[in-house]
Amino acid sequence: MRRTLDPERTREQVLAAAKRLFAEKGYNATSINDIADVARVTKSLVLYHFGSKEALWQAAFTSSAAPILQLFHRYLEGDPSLRAKDMLRHRFRFLQEHPEIGRMLAWISLEAAPLPEQLVRLLPRIAAKAMSEIGESPLGIEPTMLTAIVLGAMDGWFRHRSLYAKVGDMPADEAADDLFLEALMKLLPE
Fold first, then answer.
1. In this predicted structure, what is the pLDDT of residue 4?
2. Fewer Cβ neighbours under 10 Å: the N or C end of the chain?
3. Are 38 and 17 within 8 A, CB to CB?
C-alpha cells in the first residue's frame, strides 16, 4: 500500500520538531538533518517546505510567539485596553506559559542566531511607545534604563528560576512567579 502525502501535516511536523530542537539546542547546534530526523521526514522535505535553516528558525519563532506578537500589534494600533504596564504583564505571563520562547531568546543572546524579523520590526516601536507612557520610576530611573531593567529581569527570571530554587529557599512555581512579577511592577510608576 502506498502512503499518501499530506503536505500540511508534514510542514507542521517539521515546524514542531524545529521549535523543540531550536529551544533545546539553539540555532547553531541544530541542523536540518536533526530536524528531519525528529520530524521523521527527509532533509529534502524540510528544505522544500522552508527553504533554509534560517527561514525555518524564523517560522518556528513566529509560530511560537504568534499570540504575543498579535498583542504587540494591538498595542501599537492604540488598543485602549493595553498600556505599557499591561504589556509587561502580558509578556511575563507569555514567557511563563511558553518556556520555548524564553529559551529561543536566550539562544539569540548567547550565539550568532538570526534575530527574528518580527522582533526587528516591532520592538523599537513598542519600546518607544512604552517608554513614552512609563515615565520616570519612583526610584528616579529614567524610562529607557527602567525598561531595560524590567525586561532583563523578566528574561533572567525565566532563564534562571530553577537555579534560584536550588540555591535559595524559593520554589520554582507559579506563586514565586507571581511574587517576582509583583516586585517588578513596583519598580514602575502608577
1. 54
2. N
3. yes
